Amino acid sequence: MARQENAQTRRQSRFEKFASCQAQGQCLMTPADFLESIVHEDLPGWSRKREVNNQDINRMLNGTPGIRKGSNKFFRQLQDRGIITYPEYLFLVTILTKSRRGIEIAFRMLDKDGNHELSKDEFLVVRVEDSEPTDIGNRSSKIEDLYGETRKSIANSSQALENAALPGGMDPNQWQNLVGNTTLKTHFFTPRGNGTLTFAQFSKFMADLQVEVSEMEFIEYSRGMPTVPEESFARLLLRNTALEAEEVAKYLDRLNSRLTVRKGITKQQYVDFSMFLNNLDDFSMAMRIYSISGQPVTQDEFQRAVRISTGHAIDPYVVHTVFQLFDNDGK
């Protein structure tokens, strides 16, 4: 319970730190704020919030595209022209690192009448269990486990969407009364709120968001270059693990000593690997089969397990780089 409360406090603090707007004392994010909160670790955030009312919010929502015009640049294109509430923020970060199967579970939990479509009223009751394993950085700590000395598979950490306390004891209906329309509600259900959302549309939206965040991470570390250096790629994987600074340095030293030829990691390679990280729970089941035999997993076997369990393919050079970073003998 204490761990969940700490995670909840941390999430709320992060939301309030990066939110640039407020209405009646409650913080609100723009799409740009949301991306900043996910991608950037050490930005100072906003010390002063811009006060907005419903008229301001309606102006900010003008131009929000419908669900059929969504893309993996949705948040970047909107920038400050939109509003995201705290319940919506929790919803997005909770399922941001989920596999397609996890996203389907989330959709089915929201689909109260079982008609395979979400209405605005069904979406309004969304509440999420704000627990630590849903953090986006937790993918990196899981990947570390896959290459440890024991070669044991990771535990399944899928989280159900359940009730959680919201700021000031507000429930989603109170947020609706405070804000009215938001970017997500407008995008999903039209400005009038009379549209519906299918699972295919919901799944595409989340896949687009996952790609958009991965591309933003790549841009942050590539600094305008076409590739990210292998060491920077390694730092992206290690930045949210439980490793101490000295241990991180040892991993990086090991990588640098083993890589004789460096190609860099392209944006597409990084995005593909990020999509794999979202399917780690499925992949771990395939890895268990290998671990039963007690034999080391080769790079070819690793790639095969990825394809079979997740449907994703990872570039062989990326797999090679990951093995040089985490595996004891680099093979």
Automatic annotation (TrEMBL):
Places the protein is found: Mitochondrion inner membrane; Mitochondrion intermembrane space
Cellular component per GO, a single term: mitochondrial intermembrane space
Gene3D superfamilies assigned to the protein according to its UniProt record, in alphabetical order: EF-hand
Gene Ontology biological process: calcium import into the mitochondrion; mitochondrial calcium ion homeostasis
Keywords of this entry: Calcium, Membrane, Mitochondrion, Mitochondrion inner membrane, Repeat, Transit peptide
InterPro entries xref list: EF-hand-dom_pair, EF_Hand_1_Ca_BS, EF_hand_dom, MICU1/2/3
Residues covered by the EF-hand domain: 98-133
GO molecular function annotation: calcium ion binding
Electron transport listed as a keyword: no
Protease among keywords: no
Name of the molecule in the record: EF-hand domain-containing protein
Organism, as annotated: Nematostella vectensis (Starlet sea anemone)
